[in-house]
Amino acid sequence: xTHYLRLLSLVVSAMLLAVKAVAGIKVSQTLPSxxxxxxxxxxxxxxxxYCNATxxxxxxxxxxxxxxxxxxxxxxNTYYIYNVTxxxxxxxxxxxxxxxxxxxxxxxxxxxxxxVYKFNELSTGAYEIQPYTTTGVAAIYLNWYKGIGNxxxxxxxxxxxxxxxxxxxxxxxxxxxxxxxxxQKYTLFSDGMPSNATVIINGQSFTxxxxxxDQSINVEEDIQTSDITVxxxxxxxxxVTIDNANYQIDFKFIQYFTPTASIDAEKQYPYIxxxxxxxxxKSGDNLVHTTSASDADRFVLIEAEQGKYYIYDRTxxxxxxxxxxxxxxxxxxxANSNVKYTTDKATANTWQLMMLSEETVAIIPGSVENPTGxxxxxxxxxGIDNNxxxxxxxxxxxxxxxxxxxxxxxxxxxATLMYALPGAQYIHKxxxxxxxxxxxxxxxxISTLALHDDRVAIGNKYKYIxxxxxxxxxxxxxxxxLTNETGDEIQSKVRLIVxxxxxxxxxxxxxxxxxxxxxxxxxxxxxxxxxxxxxYGLIEAGFNTIVLDDAxxxxxxxxxxxxxxxxxxxxxxxxxKTALKGINNxxxxxxxxxxxxxTCENYQPGSYGYEAAHLALFDSWGVxxxxxxxxxxxxxxxxxxxxxxxxVAKLNEERQAKGEIPFVFNICEWGKTxxxxxxxxxxxxxxxxxxxxxxxxxxNNSRPGVLGGVDEVRKLWMYAGVNRFNDLDMMCIGxxxxxxxxxxxxxxxxxxxxxxxxxxxxxxxxxxxWCMFASxxxxxxxxxxxxxxxxxxxxxxxxxxxxxxxxxxLTNTEVxxxxxxxxxxxxxxxxxxxxxxxxxxxxxxxxxxxxxxxGRMAVSVTNRGTxxxxxxxxxxxxxxxxADNKYTCRDIWANTESEIENTLSPGTLQPCETKVYVLTExxxxxxxxxxxxxxxxxxxxRYDISGxxxxxxxxxxxxxxxxxxxx
Length: 967
Description:
- Helix content is 11%, strand content 31%.
- Strand 20 and strand 21 (248-255) form a beta hairpin.
- The chain contains eleven helices and 61 strands.
- The chain is mainly β.
């Protein structure tokens, strides 16, 4: 009989291993005495150590031992283990009981003398392995007792021991089995691979990798980081994550700086070079340190060849070069250092980068091949306390970690470009860096705003500005005055743009083609989707834009020839818009392009360098929104997106003059270069802050599920506001495990197929969290009368695909009002009140609070786990509300209302449940200082709870004459 064991997945990053679940292995039938076992495996614990031939720990690939497993006929889940490498059976001396010990395992030549082991499968797919006692009881667990070190030396000969903790408590008792010698297909992924980058795996070259995994490689053995070379320039490096269990490799390209073409180039990209505690400046004849960023020299980097750069000190007018590739000693003069300066380019040489983290690099002589942690690199060798000059020292020294800081970027850890509608309620939250304090604000001509400090000792501990925006349109400015921990005074200017023609004052709501249709889009299919949006009340709920993602154009690489595919859209894009308007006049059309040479599917040309021409084309078709990707990039993100943003700004000036609605610009570079810091300045009104969302509850960094996406964004609330939103990507509600690219989850090996999908509770949680976070809301499910697998063919579809529960979730007016609230705030993560503080975990709970108009507060509590959890009472004073005041508490999903004072009691949350409350103070004074409360009592007009005017027969919670009505 063939037996199957499921595996725990192995994720190998550039410098780190982690574990996930995968598919199984077969148990051998042929005994070693009769021939080679059919199936051989390596054994690795969750601390990422393998067994060698003696079953001692190793991380050296050549030392991984191979094992075969034979079923024991007398006990279920019981196996003999044969050490193929050592040609021995893995046995032990049986006893009545066992204690924790090292060297428990013995080797024997004969199966007759071998003992058997019990394999207990964990929920993750990993295994615990236990010996039996003489009485037939499975005892404690195989483990290198006392850990790796003196008691269990790496590559030693101390055999496996025993430990009392099982595999859920101790990683050393948690075992992954990996089959050897089977050819596997590895799928390759990348969010935003630059157009000039090349990935080489075992000699095979790849370009144009994308998030959909269109390219792959077949290999027999596990791929290691040493098997991969990435060639890239443009200030980029690649972080490589290898998942040897799910056979996936992810390449995350990180741009540390934008090169300057030459020292005479019209466009310069200067940077400050910062190590952990100091910057570089030239003083007299020496390259010394300074602790003041304002005193630091500005450098430009000029790419001489791919990945090799001249470093030019623009402040001092000289190149930085090396005279000897060796660690220097403590020198106080540059004349005695291995790093010098020259005004002669012919004397200068080049430098290269080695990634240390996603923030820092080592700067290494360009002549070094295959640099390591011991390679000499930029360092104030001997220490800045000893006044050492710039020299060379090991790359793995903490003082060899350098950042390239763009001095033109805001130094503030919050938004400094804000937006408001004329006369609207306004809030600007000002959390500061450690040691910094906002002391005052100069508001200039603005008389309707004030600085408040009632939150400096509560929650996330910050001051904030609130009130009402100026009534007159225009650009305003106010100045923040701060002091740092040394008493220095700092100023930061904030631009406030007040306009009635903002791109997206509240988050966009749309339906996107990608997760269901991928390339298989057409006029007729979009019309049927629109009919579904109308049928299910989704247009009325606010989902009013159908966005054509990649592959709407005729396939070509000629940017000048970009146009729609007449086979897919015989009436053109304008013809599609006319057809959609015929279904519901509220419908709009959005479109997709890319800030590079080609789109992510390598299907149609990108728009870099053709921004104005392509945008004019879209506008001529009646398109009102652009999703702008970043595959096959040709320049840095800020440069690339600013070029399109400038074109959008000009178009919107023309549209405003003609009385037309604004054109909406969505930046989609997956959060790789922190678009929340520059996206608004580049002209966007929202920006993707995560990788592509997958239909999964947790997921991981490269394939985030519901919680994974939220985890990546939950501490970015200070960058969100009106017309500037962090985008969590498309929601997977209504896909039911039948989508295309969305099915490529952390635990699923390909696009399409059938996966478990989200439960109703998980779908409601996704809706709740996306709304709390003020994320754009994008649907992507099949709404047609007869659903059909498009990006996921040959899978049977239910009819209809979307359920009553899905519709109830997506059209809940009260949770949508939280998303569309006119204050535009992203919910704050209340870490001190939460227990799910580890990213990508499936345990604990999370508490979020969101300021709403009229001083109201939305509160959500999410159970991350798959078992029920009891949440303690939340003190209202801990979430910026008032003690001893009464509040109306509206429970959104339960559709109930109560009165509370001092505490909010979430009680028990079911698996993956999110409870959402809206709290409204019953007293006339609001909790949010200075916020205009007039919306709650304006004349005889009816408003929804986000402050928008609504009809008298409005379905949901509304306010008229100060009275709330729910119908």
